[in-house]
Amino acid sequence: MIKQLFKNHLNTTKKQILFLVFLAFIPRLYRITNPVADWHAFRQADTASVTREYVKNGIDILHPHYHDLSNIQSGQDNLEGFRMVEFPFINVLIAGILRLVPILPLVATSRIFSVFASLGTLVFLYKFVYLSTKDINLAFLSGLFFALIPYSIYYSRVILPEPFFLFFSMGSIFFLSKAVKNKNKFYKNKSFWISAVFLSASFLLKPFVAFLAPLYLLIILQNIGWKKLFHWSWIIYAVISLLPFLLWRDWILQFPSGIPASDWLFNSNLIRFRPAWFRWLFYERFTKLILGYTGIILATVGLFNNKYKTKKSFKNILWAWGFGLLAYLSIIATGNVQHDYYQVIFVPFFSILLGVGLQTLWKKTTTLKNNLQKLAQIFIILITVSSLLLAWKNVSGYFNVNHWEYVETGERIDKLLPKDAKVIATAFGDTIFLFQTNRTCWPIGFEIEDKIEKGAQYYISTSYDDEARNLEKTYTTIEKTSDYIIIDLTKKEIIEE
């Protein structure tokens, strides 16, 4: 009988996971064929460009290149177009597939891979919650919120490291939790070593995974205690997790022109702990953007829930998780305020808090009688639904293509100019337009003669400004419409007065 109950329970979890994966997959297909011109397209363009350069020029994993040859990101002229940020193993994977199947579109394929990574994160999140609490309902609710939070949906189909970072970090947490359940022989469990490999991949994508250290530590201490923390296996675990990252960081130092400036991420504008820091992060991002105002009620209840003694250890895990994330917000202060995608790391955490909060409030209603119980349950449903709807209102604009003129002009340039042409595609330093041209060079004008000496052959602009007008007087105009102008910088043309 016990065996049958366990089997039925296992079947239920599989059905729930399949349902959640399907539920999450559908909205993540929304505008999946968008060009790289939606929200935070500048960073997406940089990431997608590395993949495209691999497709065009062959795969050299240790020497990733992209389209921007300017000094904007690193402060140094990057004439070879190095892109030394995250280790490009995801770019290599996608590029390898695209080289094998050239008919596949680069942008849509890259987005689909991000979606698959997100679905994997959902599975790991569900399994982690179930493993930690043995509460199938809480696991389901946590997965449900991860699937449906609009912020999560958008950042699950972007061309960024974040979806893969969540996949590997959440996977590492789950596999570690699974391994240490065996107190005496945790290091003999393959999950232990899988966790180390996944953590290594997380570091190679985003070193911010280091801020999850309190979570890792508490998971270990709750299961195997202090004494086994000094077991020889943890040294190997640390080597596997950190050595590839350290080797990569040491390697990229040889290419300083390809390393974007990062010191500004910490507190360059002195915003840390100022009123604007609290407003932008805790109100604009968490309360408004991610939780849709009313979701803050569920999240707060989830964080401070003290009613379930059987889940005390899990409550402590949530607090350790939250502490690590708070440290992340505090140390990477300017970066978090500047870019909302820096908060993607919070999505699994918030998904669990919302699940705990919803479950807690719903159970409280069971102590009420008749109409009062129904009213309370309706109120909870309204809180939950309104949270998702209000969050969607704030996120829906993220899917919009902001500069169709960049896309259309880029398509024209791709047909008109030589494939190896180096261009100046001016868009105020934004690389979105440059990416659309499928060419390399500069995303900003100024000092045109200097750029010509460095290899610039064509000037393209969607705004007919003073710079374009002056260049038009000196160089040959290839094509000019109401939307753009293309100037050949290799051919001078003297216009008689």
Residue share in helix: 55-70%
Largest sheet: 5 strands, mixed
Q: Tell how many strands the DSSP assignment holds.
A: 5
Q: Please tell me the overall pLDDT.
A: 93
Query: Strand order within the widest sheet?
Result: 2-1-3-5-4
Structure notes:
The structure is a single chain. This protein is 61% helix and 5% strand. The chain is mainly α and 497 residues long. Among the domains are: 96 residues, no CATH class; 89 residues. The protein has a five-stranded mixed β-sheet. Strand 1, helix 19 and strand 2 form a beta-alpha-beta unit. The longest helix has 28 residues. The protein is globular. The relative contact order is 0.11.
Question: What keywords describe this structure?
Answer:
497 residues, 21 helices, 5-stranded mixed beta sheet, mainly alpha
